[in-house]
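Re: the multi-chain job from yesterday

Posting the exact lines I submitted so nobody has to dig through the queue logs.
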Amino acid sequence: MAALPSIIETTQSAGRQPLLAVREVGKLFGPDKGCQNVSFDLYPGEVLGIVGESGSGKSTLLSVLSGRSQPQEGNITYCNKQGELIDLYSSSEAERRTLLRTEWGFVEQNPRDGLRMGVSAGANIGERLMAQGVRHYGTLREQGLSWLNQVEIDPNRIDDLPRTFSGGMQQRLQIARNLVSSPRLVFMDEPTGGLDVSVQARLLDMLRRLVRELDLAVVIVTHDLAVARLLADRLMVMRRSRVVESGLTDQILDDPQHPYTQLLVSSVLQP
Amino acid sequence: MQTILEVENLNKTFTLHQQQGVVLNVLKNISFNVQAGECVVLHGHSGAGKSTLMRTLYGNYLPANGSIRILHQGGMFDMVGAEPREIMAVRRETMGYVSQFLRVIPRVTCLDIVMEPALERGWSLEKARSRAQALLQRLNIPERLWSLAPGTFSGGEQQRVNIARGFMVDWPVLLLDEPTASLDDVNRQVVLDLITEAKQAGSALIGIFHDKAARDGVADRYIDMNTQEASHAA
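And the result, structure tokens for all chains:
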């Protein structure tokens, strides 16, 4: 019987420092509800997929990792742009919020939760820049147009409200709104969840391109193994609050070791 | 000659938890070396474990134990037990894999698929594009298809796009899983020429070829996988 890939990875490798170091993190709402004993390192430019069935604790883990929900156990260290190590949950709420608005991004499953529906597309994109002190209207406008272009939305729609956009366009706008501040780490919760298959393909293709061009580190939660294969370099498989298997994406999907992962992979049509 | 790949006592088992926990010992104590500029062909009938060995070498299958040491960035690096990002670095810089099946991604064009391995190594777009175009031309993919996503291409066209992608950059180690299967004579010869050129450039090649003419044309040495069958059945 092959040994399971170790969940805790060594950090001593020379050169690049992990962006995010997660150690024995846990947050439980009940027996096996939530997440427990999760450890990993995420390096710059790496895309980590978290997969597993509904209720396995994926979203709880994501909110803990992204500074939105205090864990009961363990700690998370982030290495910022200046190379300083920040212990996420011993820093203040204000510091965490600043991180989330600058060096981090969060793409919600439902774009309505991540966008300001009452202001224009351009204002949605400009918000993070304004929070960073950019005040010049021309600069904000220029960035707005450039990002609409990047996410394949007609720049003529810059003054329109997001509610006049289709679901796929809203999702792309939410991505632009997050990426405008050049984040280094982006969390995504089922970003293609509510979209038609054709719209999904376009979004996935765009995400793949942006991740490579911007050298983004991403933690993406998805229950769709095809999405995971397309976007993620490595996977963590969760079941009943625990990580049961982790490793290189194609290895996990083509040669799963854990009984649950084997069931998960064999249950879908051509992941 | 320099040793590029050293495989030692490699074992691969599959435990089928969904099928009463059946354990298959597919690879048992495999050991061999491959030198620079050499093409080693895996020989054995269907089910002998040839493709399993290839996938295990590439890190796609998880070995039970043993070692797969590969000359990577100036040192011998063991793929067994390596972290995902280390395996990805080996796949980017050192070890290529060509199968007969193209994994099609919706909306990604033929040219982009072929260029990707070079862009990942940091080539300029111009340099990558001209190399990709030359390869597609050589493999007789009509120019009008280059800017289309290959989802609608014929099986043979998809296979040749995948081969172009595989030969886009120079690989110190190149794994070839039936690259010539179901190609016509003209295109088979193009692939054999590409293989010969890679050998001359110093690549270490490991291949599976069902077609005898192709096999004899490129093989320097054979590894007999049929001896595996006895242990598999045991």
